[in-house]
Write a structure and sequence with these properties.
alpha/beta; 10-stranded mixed β-sheet; 15 helices; 18 strands; binds S-adenosyl-L-homocysteine
Length: about 425
């Protein structure tokens, strides 16, 4: 069957539109003139997701002609292995009758598309479970790209802007798909949540240690050049500077993403109440890095304050913060490197299978090159990290039926979790 075959290359993105758009800068400077310097979080939110001229709202920025390229766009193997992870977690949960596959920030839809191919291939293992797809996306432009990728013709755009579900469709494999703007809008039920390069796009606050205590970094107009923005350290404490920093933090400069914290709390609550698991993959650190806010335009670093709205803005994900916000009612695994996760998931075997079935020299070279891009520690293998939230029931002792089953030691021990298997719990 062609489901395990090599898929056509994706490197054929549309060109990025709206490159020199002064309206975003005007919008920001008039806002700052009216009410004073804005927080970095507000700056990031406006630049990325302002409903009229936000970077994510207007552009398809992914791919070779865009501003950055992501793992699911680089190789189909990435999504296939995550698809196997989803099925594995669903099985470990006792094969619930309904499975919601939820992706936050699906970009061009490639990850979910590769997962759905795996679901079809593993149909008999999925045992007739009712699978539904739920996508959380703020960008109307990207939701269109996703619909084209996942549904072809079979899609319906909802009329009302206020509806929680703003778009519905049916996948090529016959599964229902729904689009939402916010995580809160996703229906309840056993869910596997995926977020790849999603948390890094959420707004961060920036703080600077001073002799008077923590102060928030804000964005202001440069007094010498009214068309230019600059960072300033706010002289007085702000709500964020007094509430978001841990008392024992030793760093000079700290970035916190409260919106990411709220979303992780929401996922954790859902996993506790309805069962399921979350897999979060992003570049990030474990509460050690200081200044990671940066811009990308045309695959190059770009000054975050220059020509706002024409470049992607991003900050490394602080996994220690996500773990703290997830709370103790779920189990957190990781972060581990992308290389370790993909190796644990069997990327080497998968590559060999694809190579065995592929006789075109350039496609073979491309498979090997993309494998190297994903796993090489100098490339994406180290910088990208995998982190998971799991239900506490994943800690329960295995049932001791059957005589041959090896008895486990007393106490609650972790069951093997695909991709993370050799790890201890945190
Ligand atoms: N996961 C994809 C795309 C990453 S880009 C990939 O790895 O290729 C970030 C994605 O998150 C985009 O789809 C963007 O539109 C979406 N996004 C950014 N901020 C968001 C927010 N606040 N709420 C929902 N989606 C958001």
């Amino acid at each position: 069957s062609n489901e395990w075959a090599v898929m056509p290359s994706r490197h054929c993105s549309m060109s990025v539109e709206g490159r020199s758009d002064p309206s975003m800068l005007r919008h920001l400077t008039s806002k700052i003139t009216a009410t004073g310097p804005i927080t970095v979080a507000e700056y990031m939110r406006e630049v990325l997701t302002n409903p009229v001229s936000g970077y994510y709202v207007k552009n398809d920025m992914l791919g070779a002609d865009g501003d950055f390229i992501t793992s699911p766009e680089i190789s189909q193997i990435f999504g296939e292995l995550i698809g196997v992870w989803c099925v594995s977690e669903w099985m470990a949960a006792g094969k619930p009758k309904a499975l919601q596959l939820v992706e936050l920030g699906p970009g061009r839809g490639s990850l979910t598309s590769d997962i759905l191919r795996v679901f079809r291939q593993l149909q008999s293992a999925l045992n007739g479970a009712a699978v539904s797809i739920h996508l959380v996306e703020v960008s109307p432009k990207l939701s269109q790209v996703q619909a084209e990728c996942l549904t072809g013709e079979r899609t319906q755009v909802c009329v009302s802007d206020k509806e929680a579900v703003y778009h519905t469709g049916t996948s090529h494999t016959g599964l229902p798909i729904a689009w939402y703007r916010r995580v809160e809008d996703i229906p309840k039920g056993f869910s596997i949540f995926l977020a790849h390069e999603f948390f890094d796009a959420l707004p961060i606050h920036k703080f600077q240690r001073t002799d008077k205590g923590w102060r928030e970094v804000m964005v202001d107009i440069d007094p010498e050049e009214p068309e230019k923005l600059r960072f300033v350290v706010f002289p007085a404490p702000t709500l964020a500077s007094t509430t978001l920093i841990q008392a024992d933090d030793k760093r000079e400069h700290v970035e916190v993403c409260p919106e990411g914290g709220v979303i992780v709390q929401n996922l954790a609550n859902r996993i506790v109440e309805d069962g399921g698991a979350a897999l979060i993959a992003d570049y990030g650190h474990d509460g050690t890095k200081m200044d990671t806010f940066r811009g990308f335009r045309g695959h190059k670093l770009h000054d975050v304050l220059l020509a706002p709205g024409t470049a992607d803005l991003t900050a490394d994900v602080d996994f220690s913060y996500l773990r703290r916000m997830a709370g103790g009612d779920v189990v957190c695994l990781g972060p581990i490197t992308q290389r370790t996760f993909l190796k644990n998931m069997g990327i080497d075997t998968r590559l060999q299978v694809l190579l065995r079935n592929c006789h075109d020299a350039s496609t073979r070279a491309q498979l090997i090159q993309s494998y190297d891009m994903l796993t090489n520690l100098e490339k994406m293998g180290q910088r990208f990290q995998f982190f998971s939230l799991l239900s506490r029931s994943r800690l329960a002792e295995p049932q001791e039926e059957g005589e041959g089953l090896k008895r486990r030691k007393k106490g609650r021990v972790p069951l093997p979790v695909a991709g993370f298997s050799e790890l201890g719990l945190q």
